[in-house]
Amino acid sequence: MKRMKAVSVMLAVIILSCSVLAGCSSGNSSNKESSNAPGGSTANSGESAGAIKLDIIETGNNLPTPDKDFIKQAIDKAIQSDLNLTVYASGDDYKNQLNVRLASGNFPDLFQVPDRASLKQFVEQGLLLDLTPYMDKLQPVKDFIGDESLKKTTMDGKVYAVPKAPNIPYNTYWIRKDWLDKLGLQPPATTDEFLNVVKAFADQDPDGNGKKDTLGLTSSKISAFAPIFGAFGVGDPNTFYVKDGKLTNSLYDPAMKDALGYIKKLIDTGAVDPEIMANTGLQHQEKAIKGQAGIIWIDWPNLSKDQFTEQIKKVNPNADWIQLAPPKGPGGQYDGPFDIGGTSGIYAIPKALENNKEKLQKVFDLLNFVSGQEGSMLVQFGISGTHYNLDGDKVVPTELMGKEAGFTWLYQFTGRPEMTYLQTKFAPQTKYIEFANSQPRIQILNGFLTNPDGYNPADAGRFIEEEFVKFIYGKNPLTGYEGFLSTLESSMNFKTYMDASTKQLEELGYGK
Amino acid sequence: MNQRTAVHPVQETAPKPVLVSEFGRNIWRYKAFYLMLLPGLIYYIVFKYIPMYGVIIAFKNFNMMDGIWSSPWASPWNKHFLTFFHSPYFSQLLTNTFLISFYKLVFGMIPPIAMALLLNECRIKWFKSLIQTLTYMPHFLSWVIIYGILLALLSQSSGLLNQWLKDAGGEAIPFLTSTSYFRSILVGSEIWQNLGWGAIIYLAAISGIDPTLYEAARVDGAGRMRMIWHITLPGIRTVIIMLLILKLGHILDAGFEQIYIMYNIQVYAVADILDTWVFRTGLQQLNFSLASAVGLFKAAIGLVLVLGSNKLAKRWGEGIW
Amino acid sequence: MVKSTNDRIANAVVFVILLACGLVAVFPLLYVLSVSLTPFSEVLKNGGFILVPRSITFDAYHKLLTESNIPRAFGVTVLVTVIGTIMNMAITALMAYPLSRKQLPGRNFFLMMVVFTLLFSGGIIPTYLVVKSLGLLDSIWAMILPNLVWSFNVLIMKSFYESLPEELFESARIDGAKEFRILLQIVAPLSVPVTLTIGLFYTVGHWNEFFQAIMFVTDRSLFPLQVVVREILIQTQQPLENAENMTPSETLQMASVILASLPIILVYPFLQKHFTKGMLLGSVKG
């Protein structure tokens, strides 16, 4: 007993002294100092000796090694730099890496900010360089992404990061045309017809194998019903939008209850994928390709890219997926919502770079370069003459583009002109791209929001999702919806969040 | 500092008041031992104990710019612990964590031991090593892959098992989205993954048992069961108890990676554990202080359990120290 | 030796149970192997679950071995595993032996120090700072040194050393053997099974390690196997919102799993034959 105590005390002493040690000497020497590996500099050929090395980290994949990375080589040549880009396939790994590097002062020179919540945190902790005074130096970037875009990375009137150029929506419902034909049905145009088709796909054996083994509708999570919410004029759960000139949160939209009631009817048919809430990654897409489901809510790349159309054809040569306009309902006709505050990437520069004017200028050069005519073409399509040829203004891809220029988007730090870019790179998919882009959508504003203190978005998010699942699966009656809202406010601090969000959006001029 | 429980009397000891000089002499006498310990100790100090100051993050509002030392203290000092205790899900998280971990401990402890005993009883050499290799393989499949396989078997809409059920005229069972099956699947898949791998250590322990004991027993006409009961099991008792104590220390680690990959909103009520909550709340929102506070909470409980169980085990002469 | 009927029944029971366990363990691997050899569209056509490959193709393996980072990463992993395991074993044995001697002054303190780190850790940020200040970032040492000794293995080894008969040490000491020699010439040869077991734990640990590499290494040419495989697997788990993102097919994913785990699985049968009995007896008597 006593011995145990003594041991604990001694341990405590050791820990304390260790901490002191660590605190005082950051460069504590040890016999373990190794003959360090040469690091990343080996990759660079000796000729660009005066080039400034830029460390960049972001999420992504399939980046080739530097010797095969012709984009890196071209940029290095153009702006006299030595880019060292590191990409992480897993968003979680990336966050871990970014955090330890920021916390240990080992700052990258340019890095992707995971989301707006992180942006807020980084800004509050003084980690990011305020770009406002440098805006004139970033004129090409500004021209490229548009002034409006900078709102997305502005906090308290200061610009702390560069968002990518605006993106466009990809998601729609897709439906099996051949199944419709087989059952003699038309593509559903209203919510009632939608319900019938979903039911028929499950009950009337559209694949003709004599077994009741098909599903009407699949997707991943609650967003499977995005166009349904749209048909009732509401956004996805917990989204903000302007309705009839008033700022509204979908949870408080009176039409939300009706939408839930309809979704419950849909689920009651037994024709909706029972694992719709459990599907992650591309599980729902696989179900669709396997011929298990007749309708899916998904982005066009994951169902219409060559890679997948090939799979679809091989599994069933008759399978014919077409896009479906959102069904009309009592609240109108809207496809899944589109977040006008969202971006496909935010890039920031650490405040520490302030003192290294030369390097800072080089980062600006880089951002300006990939936003300018020459650089933008490079990071979009590759090397002129090798990966594409110009026919007047039109970019004509060569065969090599598909083969080796698939990674160039990793260098699109400021984005790209989305529509023309996609139409060039995905020429066969052009009609799907245009269709998805031209659907009416509720414009949501969540991308502009940051969470107030005392509000735990993880707990609240879980509560909302869980309760919604209970409503649509009939575990709780919809009459309990008001009760749900008051619990949300009382135990999840949702009121604080609502007030803060409303204030933030009003400041940006929404709902006034 | 001598162990009174030591079976073999050690010559130089006398439990009298220890004189400094005698203590010093003792240390000098064992200098070779200390020298051996040295590289390991340096490792522990450099890579384990120096970073240990990081636990103070739990009591600070960690700010990356200021670093660990200069970040302001949290006020009140236990602010991050309170965030955790006051979460509406606190009691559910604790219950889930404890139950899943407890089931894994109870149901997961026996199969590898049984496996080792069976392998030890197997008289066909090639068959033994074949089975040993086969059962060891699942350890190398990551949870992502295992979940993929589970889906292929258990999915309500397309799983093989449910196909059979439906073909036999039954109803499909929502194994992966129903609160009634989920924990069993967690525990079951872990046992499956760990069966052969967990047996390795017991096999090593069994191989350390003096074979003359078996010969003597055989001469006495003891049957197999009796030999297992009286020789093999006592022979690996030390290892079993040690593993048990160490596992108790990790009672609040219910297996983050497995659950994170396998759970979904419909089973959160039975599957959400401390680590998954910390991941969603703390790490995804960059709240290192919260993550650190929960880690400290878990470790403190683990420490109490390790100290307690070790003390208990010592009564039977089997403690870790 | 006369075999009783009882004994034969027991043998049969053992055989059947083990066979069942073997089958249950092997079928998922069979699945992984089959998918890795079958064109993905074939897999989907068959409902996504196959145990026997249909229309075999080695495309996935060919692609991984020629186009991906796998061959290079394989080299890194082997290097880290070999160097790492040797260092791990040496230091673990050196720690375990003194800690197994119950008369060692301060033994409890050291043991407590070892156990304590099983529960408490300072977290990734201070560890990163230590690794950084030692200049280990972006080197293979960053994948070896931060996990040089596993407390768990020290405790296992120590408890095996404790179970060696005390007379052994007494007689050696009378011979005037130095402690290092006792460890090397008496203790080590007597504990081959536990040494191999611990060695296996370390080897597998190094082989499966990816976290340290992700945290401490940014140079792609130093990425170990598991990081590369993880990149391939994760792409379908967390699809990036990007149209160009090439999703690796399940065939490719499974092939990467096979490539990453087969070598280490094949190590095991070679170790098994050393888990033999009777070694202890022979040397004590001899």
TrEMBL record, chain A:
Question: What is the protein name given in its UniProt record?
Answer: Extracellular solute-binding protein
**PROSITE patterns in UniProt:** PROKAR_LIPOPROTEIN (PS51257)
* Keywords tagged on the record: Signal
Name the source organism: Paenibacillus mendelii
How far does the signal peptide extend, from start to end residue?
1-22
Please name the InterPro entries in this protein's record. Answer: Bact_solute-bd_prot1, SBP
Q: Which domain of life is it from?
A: Bacteria
Q: Does the keyword Signal apply?
A: yes
Which Gene3D superfamilies does the record match to this protein? Periplasmic binding protein-like II
Q: Does the keyword Signal apply?
A: yes
TrEMBL record, chain C:
The organism that produces this protein has a lineage beginning with: Bacteria, Bacillati, Bacillota, Bacilli, Bacillales
State the name under which the record lists this protein.
Carbohydrate ABC transporter permease
Q: What is its main location?
A: membrane
Which CDD domains does this entry report, sorted A to Z? TM_PBP2
Q: Where is the ABC transmembrane type-1 domain?
A: 74-270
InterPro entries per the record?
MetI-like, MetI-like_sf
Q: Where in the cell is it found?
A: Cell membrane
Pfam families referenced in this protein's UniProt entry, alphabetically: BPD_transp_1
Transmembrane residue ranges: 12-33, 73-97, 109-128, 140-161, 182-202, 252-271
Q: Does the keyword Cell membrane apply?
A: yes
